[in-house]
Amino acid sequence: MTVTSYTFGAHVAYLDHDARIGLVICPRPEHDVPDLDGGWTLHGSDYTATMRWLVQRGYVPLEDEDGLDLIDGCTADGRAAVPLSACQVDPDHELDIENEQRSWDGLADAAGLTERA
């Protein structure tokens, strides 16, 4: 398992290309900068750009039962983690449960998660 990190303006993505899963670490909400015209916040714009970049590379955020991006834990300083999965499942590339869990654990370690949902 090899974890690759990509740093964006305010978000960091950790991807395991072999397992085709990942995590996006979001900045703390209180550090956001609102748009004075009532448009997107700085973090909102960066999150959208980050997800667009990830989708172009085959990753999408996992969603909860309401269709919202899932939050799967946080870092020691309170930054939320959004799990990612491959857009398309490759039946020749599926991991067994044990290897998939090992990949999630490696991503959590690389991203500095201290709590997982």
Can you offer a commentary on this structure?
The longest helix is centred in the middle third of the chain and has 15 residues, at 42-56. The two termini are 22 Å apart. 26% of the residues lie in helices and 25% in strands. The protein has a five-stranded antiparallel β-sheet, sandwiched between helices. A two-stranded antiparallel sheet has the order 5-7. The protein contains two helices and seven strands. It has 117 residues and is α+β, with helices and mostly antiparallel strands. It has helices spanning 42-56, 97-111, and strands spanning 3-7, 12-16, 21-25, 59-61, 74-75, 81-86, 113-115.
What is the strand and helix layout of this fold?
Elements lengths: L2 E5 L4 E5 L4 E5 L16 H15 L2 E3 L12 E2 L5 E6 L10 H15 L1 E3 L2
Antiparallel strand pairs: 1-2, 2-3, 3-6, 4-6, 5-7
- Percent helix range: 25-40%
What's the assembly state of these chains? single chain
Instruction: State the distance separating the first and last CA atoms.
Output: 22 Å
**Average pLDDT metric:** 88
Class by alpha and beta content: alpha+beta
Largest sheet: 5 strands, antiparallel
Identify the overall geometry.
globular
